[in-house]
Amino acid sequence: MSARARRALRDNGIGIAFGLLFLAALALQAAAGFADFTEQRLADHLLPVSFGRYLTSSAFAVDVAENWQSEYLQFFLYVFATTWLVQRGSPESKPPGSPHRTSNEQERVAEHAEADSPVSARAGHPRRVVFSVSLGATMGLLFLGSWAAQFIAGRSAYNAQQLAQLQDPLSWSDYLMSPDFWNRTAQNWQSEFLAIGSMAVFAVFLRQRGSPESKAVGAPHDSQG
Q: What's the pLDDT at 225?
C-alpha cells in the first residue's frame, strides 16, 4: 500500500470504519430479517419468497427506514438544540451564558474569512446563509425523507398483512393515524431522546481518555472541556 493510500485511510478512519460497520450490520439485518419473514409466511400458510424479493419488499424497507429516520432526527435536533440550550459541564454543550447567535468574526465568515476558509464562507449573503445552516438542514431533510419512506413502506407492509388475514387495507390517511405507524415511530424517537440526554449528562461526570467527545480526565466536572 502506498503512503498516500495509508494517509487517506488514516485521515478518513471514522468514515471508513463506520461505513464498513454499517454495511456489515445491514447485511446481518437482511439475513436475519429474511429468516424471520420466511418463518412468519410459513406460519401464515403462505409460500416463502426469494431473498432478492425480500430485499425489495416493503417489509425490509420499513424496518430499515424507521431506524434511519430516528437517527437523522437525533442529529437534526442535536445540531439545532445545542444552538439555544446548554448543559453546564458537558463537552457536548456551549458554556452557559454563551450568545445564541455568534458573530461573523467568531464564525470566520464574510470579511473575516481566512485564506483556507470554504468558498461559501466568503460568498455573498444568500449563499453564506444557506451554508451556515447546511448541516442541520441536511439532517432535517434526511430525517423527513426517511420518515416519508417509513410511512410509505410501512403502509404497504401493513396492508399486505391485512390482505393476508382477509381484512381491509388502510388508506393513506387511515394509516397515518394508525397505531402501527405511531408505534414504529415513537419506539425509535424515545430511544434517541434518551441517548441524546444521557450523553450530554454523563459526559459531565464521566471521562473517556483520548476521545474528543470527553473532557480531559482531570478536568473539573463543571468545566465545559
A: 62
